[in-house]
Amino acid sequence: MTKHGALLLSLGLALAGCDSDPATDAGVIRDAAMDSGAGEDDAGGGDEDAGRDAGGETGSDAGLDGGPEDAGPTDAGVCEDSPCRLVSPQCGCAAGEGCTLNDASERVCEPSGPGGEGADCSVDACQPGFVCGDGPDYDVCLRFCADDTDCVGGEGSRCLIDFGVARACTTACDPVANTGCPSGAGCTIVQTAPGSGDYFINCRPAGAAATGDVCGNELDCEGGNSCRSAAGPRRCTAWCRTDADCGSGETCVFELTVGTTTYGRCALPPPPT
After folding, report:
1. Are strands 199-205 and 97-101 parallel, antiparallel or unpaired?
2. Is it the case that residue 206 has pLDDT exceeding 50?
3. What three-state secondary structure class fits 77?
4. What pLDDT is attached to residue 46?
5. Cα–Cα distance between 37 and 76 in angstroms, integer?
6. How many angstroms separate the CA atoms of 169 and 257, rounded?
7. How large is the greatest C-alpha to C-alpha distance in the chain, in angstroms?
8. Cβ within 8 Å of residue 139, ≥6 positions away
9. Distance of CA 84 to CAs 64, 97, 272, Å?
């Protein structure tokens, strides 16, 4: 089973979580991800690379719409793409195989497996139309795409992960419930460029610091958190959609929108003056 170092949170982008020294965060996260390109900072810095073994910038090019249920069966007969097609519907491969990329960034037919979008592909192969992104702490099935319209896994998924010769969608996980990512990963919100106001959702390596713990950058935190400074040291701060997502006495301070959904971070109200 071929895996690619395409991790999942970078692409020259900035994590949308911290408001203190974001450039420092970006460097720390780049160092933590290295070959996989998991660059992120949590509010405005930037980092590069989301597809080390096979490429490395943001953009769109490659095309696919899903697994066997939405990509249609592969067809080993006539196929305009040689030797096979990554986009939906796939073609050029035999039944039970999918068109994917090998370690040399070449299109090949390989046996497919049960893994759909966001699935752990460290053991089982991905469905046709997906590629196994190899990160520093987890492996995840990523959907091939030509542009954002192919990213049909859920709101916040964007065609931004670059393998050089092909692209894949970010994973539409849930940053509030922290679901939809493999073991070893957590869900968060990412900004495409510092100050752009253009956000998407993706998995990142998960840290050990719980909500409320002091953090240096978002990679220190468990999934579902940003690393934010309000008054005092930076702390892991939970993502939220409403006050009901927050702890006792906290409110959801709305700050950004992904697609049609507004997200905030849980915070205690300021003390009375």
Report:
1. unpaired
2. yes
3. coil
4. 33
5. 34
6. 19
7. 74
8. 3, 120, 121, 122, 132, 133, 182
9. 12, 11, 65
Q: What is residue 49's three-state secondary structure?
A: coil
Q: pLDDT tens, 45-97?
A: 333 333 333 333 333 333 333 334 444 444 445 788 889 988 778 888 999 99
Cα–Cα distance, 189 to 175 (Å, whole number): 7
Please give the Cα distance from 114 to 157 (Å, whole number).
21
Q: β-strands 107-111, 199-205: how paired?
A: unpaired
CA 64/CA 94 separation, integer angstroms: 17
How far apart CA 254 and CA 239 sit, in angstroms, is 10
Partnered with residue 134 across adjacent β-strands are 139
Of 259, 214, 265, 201, which is closest to residue 40 (Cα–Cα)?
Answer: 201
